[in-house]
Amino acid sequence: MEERKGRRIIMFPLPFPGHFNPMIELAGIFHHRGFSVTILHTSYNFPDPSRHAHFTLRAITHNKEGEEEDPLSQSEASSMDLIALIRQLKQSYAEPFRQSLAAEVRGGETVCCLVSDAIWGRNTALVAEEIGVRRMVLRTGGASSFCAFAAFPLLRDKGYFPIQDSRLEEPVTELPPLKVKDLPVIKLKEPEELYRVVNDMVEGAKLSSGVIWNTFEDLETFSLMDISSKLQVPCFPIGPFHKHSNDLPPKTKNKEDSETTEWLNKRDPQSVIYASFGSLAAIEEKEFLGIAWGLRNSEQPFLWVVRPGSVRGSEWLESLPFGFIENFGDKGKIVKWANQLEVLAHPAIGAFWTHCGWNSTLESISEGVPMICTPCFSDQHVNARYIVDVWRVGMVLERSKMERKEIEKVIRSVIMENGDGLKERCLELKERANICLSKEGSSSKHLDKLVSHVLSFDSYAFAS
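Now predict its structure.
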């Protein structure tokens, strides 16, 4: 679609795949609605411009001469826990972001607004106000988990934090249906750092001109109502982003994708276990071997994504016993990466064994695929509880119980026994996701409102 001249949106994603990819999908939706899009990105985990030809990609610079410098090396980042890495990113890129946004706004073409990842927090709000451009935030997680994050001050006052092992099975009466073990925390040496990051995210959202959600009303009605009343800013649940198929540029297919598709084409309908545990989670060798034997002994065909470096102490598959891969032959396939959207949409997939990251959760719901839930950290625990107890489209397999026989039992229950109407509920939820994207559906209506909202912003007035 031809772009509206003088209508530009600047976007500032967090440089992790689970955050960057939804931002790019949102950029595609805006582009289809006639906006030009500029992506400001860090030099850490920088994207490949050739894969995003529809947008202008600008690397944030770090010195007065405008030359790019890397304030955070990959080796430094690999030694940090997730929250320490987020803190370092926020500190390292605070001033470079201000300089880059100012340069973009001075560039001449009218800037409608900035859309930043919610985790960047209040600094982006202060910078946008200083420069004179309106700011919206994208929350790449679900509304239900955001409600839990927003409740952190209350939960601390009530004595839930720090979490005690003796209370793990207790209900959180302030946040049904969550149990104490579901609260979105990460084990850290300095727990206060997590509280600061979460508080900054929530307060930053309150200072925005609106929050964009990659979810849909039928899925999270009450959570959206709750968080909207707490934030007191406009909320736009326009997801699932990836299902706005006409709004997104087509993805190129590589050799590995084709080989995976060919392998899936040879499998029976709804027979394959697809196992993938996200872009950040790392597991111990014992867990890795438990997954391997559980998949093999289930006697179901499986497609297993093992990200290089995801098994502590190993580069890739070295921990597998000699002859293990040859022993299961063509019945199983292990890959380093898969096009998850294509895999989940394939008729051969019968279940998705997942870490319950929000993107994976929403993608599985959108394709009507039952889930086996093994959450690792943070909001994944909240998502798993909703998958199992609220939406009832999955079964839980906790990390502490990942032994061969338990894995086999859960896989058979989901694939062979249908888990007490699991598949029927999955298809019902898939249909509701499709309806929300129809012309009169809730996500489509919220998208129309979002476009009108952005177009209503006054032209910037750069504060020199």
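The chain has 17 helices and 13 strands.
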